[in-house]
Amino acid sequence: MNPYVYIFSTIAFTVYGQIILKWRLSQLGSLPDGMMQKITFLFKAVFDPYIFSGFASAFAASFCWMAAMTHFEITKAYPFMSLAPALVFIIGVLFLGETFTIGKVIGLGLIILGTIVTVKW
User: Fold this and answer.
1) pLDDT digits (tens, 9 = 90+) for 69-94
2) Angle at 12 between CA 8 and CA 15, to 5 degrees
3) How many domains in the chain?
4) Which one, of 24, 7, 1, lies nearest residue 81 by Cα?
């Protein structure tokens, strides 16, 4: 198996976890003000099947990352992780209605350029 599969699986699981958490939490509403209400809200949220899948996804990402670390130097593999925010941005804009600004696009371009420079040289 191509060892890059481990890196890209890590990214996919990470992105899924972030997107699913944001999507589901936006449906559940804002964090309440009172301390007991906050605890109750968060406790219920943790056991929401979608949110739980986000946590499971983060756990799976950890295993994929461990597998990647057996094949790559961290200085070679870690720059790929900067692609996760780029994917979260694109998916957030397309599916979650997040704001699209020129500043975010420029930042996204710099992240991708930085990843290319780091991996190539």
Assistant:
1) 999 999 889 988 988 988 999 999 99
2) 135
3) 1
4) 7
